[in-house]
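The material for today's practical consists of a large collection of protein records. There is nothing in a record beyond a sequence line and a structure line. Backbone structure tokens are a discrete shorthand for how the chain folds in space. Nothing more is needed to start thinking about how sequence determines fold. As an example, a complete record with its sequence and its structure tokens follows.
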Amino acid sequence: MTGDRPRFSLNPTLKYAGVLRQVAPEMAQFWLSQQEPTIMGRDPETCHIVLDSQLYTSVSRHHAQFNCATPAPNRIPQWSIVDLGSVNGTYVNQQRIEQETLLKAGDRIQLGRQGPEFVLEYLPLTDVVSTTPDQQLTLTQLLPIFAIHPDWVRKAYLVPGIVTVIAVILLFATAGNPNAFKVILALYLGSAAYYFIYQLCGKRKPWWVLLASLTLEILILQSPILPAMIYVFRTVLPGQLRPPDPSFWVLLGHNFIGAGLMEELLKAMPIAVAYGLGRWLPSPWQQKIGVWEPLDGILLGAASGLGFTWMETLGHYVPGIAGQFGDLAGLQVLIPRVLGSLTGHMAYTGYLGYCIGLSVLRPRYALLIVIVGLGLSAFLHALWNASAASFGPMGLAMVGILAYLFLTAAILKARQLSPTRSQNFATRFYGDR
């Protein structure tokens, strides 16, 4: 969050400056402008007082605005507060305000009933100048490592940093073992791509649930389910991946059945299991595991897609290429395939997961929603395969961008529809409070 010092020039004709002092736990202080409105919220681009978007989930992107009534020289300024249409409201002395409200020293302002609370204080301007951090040097300014910040894990991305260090050490340690090196690299790149999707979704889903979806997909691919599906879709149905007629439209049709439909159904199985468990288990397990909204479906679907990518890449493509052309060629296939899962398998199944979650919110249209989701995800999947054979790299680039657009559009819409929107950590948009 932004605090400690004014972000505005102070009016030298006034004897006092206004400051919001946060009630425990942090006791941070925030200065109020004397010349322009002061906006408080979670948007780092347009708010003057920025609150942590992960720590204060009840605060809107643009929550409240403070206005200063310019007094005569040498008099105490007076501020008023107005709510900016926030989701959870603004409270002054425990009363929710509906219109612009004048404030006085000692008033308590709270953003949402359970949100952060502040006290309005007036400080003599001489004290403000004398205590401005520019006038003194502290140990934590000189050596920030000693400033143990409570948001270190979230705001400094401490866990991803630690994971990166561990991955680098393991890559060094396995430099003489090509197979182990490829596995470590694939695990790291895939996890980084999935973490990007997780941050975009902005909903906290237990890590063990996501890991279970990924693991279940790997187990499904090693079970008799895979050969049975291959037989049905590629032998019984016209889903041969290399038909006699190699024209684009024939390739597209065959890949729609033999790759798109078959593989998306395989990757949807962990989502279906989570959905079923969510209806069968008691609370709170049903909320943690189940599919209750589109964000749940996206997170579980992307995790399943990552498991599929790892199995397909490490179990099929890389060994085949490495055995024919050497380990370097295998590595050259591994990197783009795993990174490309962000616009490939994770994108396709993430979109299908969105539709499965949407069907929960709109049960009246559930069948239509799931059919559309499965059809579109299978089509994008087939379009990638057919374009690879017919149009080369430029065709693949266009399909990859299209798949990413489908995924991100689904994520943004899912964030808007989320029933837990006020508790999520990435659910506010510009102009959408």
